[in-house]
């Protein structure tokens, strides 16, 4: 599925709608990968999704800390996730680097909703995501978002 956003506001609305539609899997965490050039809007997408799920604290890019874990408020209990995890794999070199982040254990908990930027960096260690989001800047401005759902 492909969507276009002319403005950041529309882009955020698309991300929020996507987040509303997510449901936990039965036996493992939900993994959403985000691909696109630097500045495409991967972090902006996670910020908007986090806001929609009720996270009020500031969501900053985890480029330097690699991983951030946010508790989700009970209000989003209808969706069933208890934590949102934001990973930026930009500085990782291979799939096995994910183990330092406790990735395998995170993926075992169905309550975890994991957003991962730069999946290409760790492709050899990544399970198939529930959804892959690709964000591209359009020459005329705005963004194209492509969603591939498992
Ligand atoms: N859809 C968008 N439309 C306009 N500006 C955007 C959009 N997404 C992100 N930006 C701006 O681009 C900058 C980088 O975005 P960011 O989400 O950090 O990119 P990425 O994580 O893909 O490197 C931010 O300042 C942000 O405000
Ligand atoms: Mg980013």
Distance between the termini: 12 Å
**Major β-sheet, in short?**
7 strands, mixed
CATH topology: Rossmann fold
Provide the CATH superfamily: P-loop containing nucleotide triphosphate hydrolases
- Can you tell me the overall shape? globular
Strand content: 25-35%
Strand neighbour order, sheet with most strands: 1-7-6-2-5-4-3
Q: Give the integer mean of the pLDDT values.
A: 92
- Helix-residue proportion: 10-25%
Q: How do the helices and strands line up, and which of them pair or pack?
A:
Blueprint: E1 2-5, H1 8-20, E2 30-35, H2 42-52, E3 67-71, E4 83-88, H3 103-107, E5 112-117, E6 131-137, E7 143-149
Parallel strand pairs: 2-5, 2-6, 4-5
Antiparallel strand pairs: 1-7, 3-4, 6-7
Helix pairs in contact: 1-2
The chain binds adenosine-5'-diphosphate and magnesium ion (MG).
What does this structure look like?
With 150 residues, the chain is α/β, with parallel strands linked by helices. It has a single domain, classed as P-loop containing nucleotide triphosphate hydrolases (Rossmann fold, 3-Layer(aba) Sandwich), CATH 3.40.50.300. It is 19% helix and 27% strand. It is built from 3 helices and 7 strands. Strands 1-7-6-2-5-4-3 form a 7-stranded mixed β-sheet. The longest helix is centred in the first third of the chain and has 13 residues, at 8-20. It is globular, with a radius of gyration of 14 Å. It binds adenosine-5'-diphosphate and magnesium ion.
